[in-house]
Design a protein that fits this description.
The protein is an all-alpha fold. The chain is built from 12 helices and no strands. α4 packs antiparallel against α9 and α9 runs antiparallel to α12.
Length: about 280
């Protein structure tokens, strides 16, 4: 009497399985091509980060932190964190992790910013896309790893794709919010001077929404970095793999070193991108 009635149960799992099988039969070639492109892109990113000399990366991080934060000692601190990563013996793995995060962020921005702009121009489109963004952010990452593995198999590609799915919503949301918060009188003034819709967007709305958009870049990057351990479970090498191996082997010191390297990368990326968002423009 108190059991949930059988006739109200929906066979959602069966429907999803059938949809996945249909997509694999009819779109298999497309996903193979997409997977090859993403793998090529990620390998080029890894090659670049591993090719750049370590001292050049340390110097670049130090200068960027100094110039963006306006304090020379912050440059030394950020550069010192990069040196510590190398001193632990995880430089190459850190560069692989940075390549995965950078690749995911680049693709997320390339897709997310236009979507956010489109949402800001249409309330109906915003109401349609918002539930998908909610699902992407709240659904456990292990759930959408299953279809990603079915489409791309194990390796770097599903790790990159899963990272993109997890990290893209912030840049979409904050691009939409940033453009919507541009004062209407400023937009009207630009149009009264003869600016087209495109000119108003590029020369007025996006520059004024820049701080909010850069915060979205910051959040997207941090969420991508948060996926490195999960990505290691499906074949992505890097610091996440070291954390996973240390858990399996109960090697506390090894896990602490790898985890500390991830923390250092997170601090460096967060501080630099936040400084970009809050930096005042010099006229």
């Amino acid at each position: 009497m108190f059991d949930f009635p059988e006739f109200l149960r929906l066979p959602l799992a069966q429907w999803v399985d059938r949809a996945m099988q249909w997509m694999l039969r009819n779109w298999g070639a497309f996903f193979d091509t997409l997977g090859d492109f993403l793998l090529w892109f990620l390998l080029r990113m890894e090659w670049f980060f591993l090719w750049v000399p370590w001292f050049a990366v340390v110097l670049g991080v130090g200068i960027a932190a100094w110039r963006l934060m306006g304090r020379w000692h912050m440059g030394f601190i950020m550069a010192g964190m990069m040196i510590l990563i190398g001193s632990f013996g995880y430089w190459d793995l850190a560069m692989m992790t940075l390549a995965l995060v950078s690749g995911a962020v680049i693709i997320s921005l390339a897709a997310g910013v236009p979507i956010g702009i489109a949402m800001s121009r249409s309330d109906r489109l915003e109401s349609i896309i918002r539930p998908f963004l909610d699902a992407m952010q709240t659904m456990p990452s292990f759930v959408y790893l299953i279809p990603v593995l079915m489409f791309f198999g194990l390796g770097k590609v599903p790790a990159l794709f899963a990272t993109i799915v997890y990290s893209m919503p912030p840049i979409i949301r904050l691009t939409n919010v940033g453009i919507r918060e541009v004062p209407a009188d400023v937009v009207e003034a630009s149009r009264s001077f003869g600016a087209t819709e495109w000119q108003t967007l590029i020369k007025v709305q996006i520059p004024l929404a820049r701080p909010t958009i850069v915060v979205g870049i910051n959040q997207t990057t941090m969420m991508a970095l948060a996926m490195v351990v999960v990505a290691s479970m499906i074949g992505a090498r890097g610091l996440g793999m070291e954390v996973l191996l240390s858990i399996n082997r109960i090697e506390v010191g090894r896990g602490f070193e790898a985890g500390l390297c991830i923390v250092f990368l997170a601090i460096i990326i967060d501080r630099i991108t936040y400084a970009m968002a809050t930096r005042k423009r010099v006229p």
